[in-house]
Amino acid sequence: MDLDIDPPRRVGPIEIGMPFDRAARALQDIPGFTPPLLKERNPPGFAHYESEMSIALEPGRDGRVKSIEIYRPTRNINVLYRGISIFGESASDVIRKLAQITRLKIEDDGLGVLAHELLMSLGRAVLPEGPDDPDGRYFESVLIAAPGYYE
């Protein structure tokens, strides 16, 4: 399944600026949603999926969605921005392709990448130590936000 991100407007059915409660309910409409176990409670606006993807919504003071963060799925979901597979392509390829579209601010040698004009950021916890090291080869999260988020 493909999940399209369209910064700064939406991720799939979730829109920046939509009422937070409605957005939190819409997370359940994304295929593969797994409700928390009876004894578990997810924070409001957080959802987990069979693909191991998670999505976290951040509310603004006005009760509307201020940001949407997607955590990397391990299978069955392809998160796309303009045909770029954010988690399926290596971080270096994603950076190269995004740099052809917009200006990027590379932080901490590539642990974080900010596409300020798109109101989108990408992150990973570590960098690969060599060409055969799988750790850090891919981004672990992507966040899109409302205008003013990075000011």
How would you portray this structure in words?
By secondary structure, the chain is mainly beta. It has one domain. It is 11% helix and 33% strand. Strands 4-5-6-7-13-12-11-10 form an 8-stranded antiparallel beta sheet. A hairpin with a 4-residue loop joins strand 10 and strand 11 (112-115). The radius of gyration is 15 Å and the shape is globular. The N and C termini lie far apart (34 Å). 29% of the residues are buried. The mean pLDDT is 93.
Mean pLDDT: 93
| Tally of helical segments | 2
- What is the domain total for the residues? 1
* Largest β sheet strand count, sense and barrel closure: 8 strands, antiparallel
Strand pairing plus helix content: what structural class? mainly beta
Strand-residue fraction?
25-35%
Computed over alpha carbons, the radius of gyration is: 15 Å
Distance from first to last alpha carbon: 34 Å
Strand order of the largest sheet: 4-5-6-7-13-12-11-10
Specify the overall morphology. Answer: globular
Q: What is the chain-wise order of helices and strands?
A: EEEHEEEEEEHEEEE
Strand count:
13
Oligomeric state of shown chains: single chain
Give the topology, please.
Layout (H helix, E strand, L loop, with lengths): L1 E5 L3 E2 L2 E2 L4 H7 L6 E2 L11 E4 L4 E6 L5 E7 L6 E4 L2 E2 L5 H9 L5 E3 L4 E4 L4 E4 L17 E5 L6
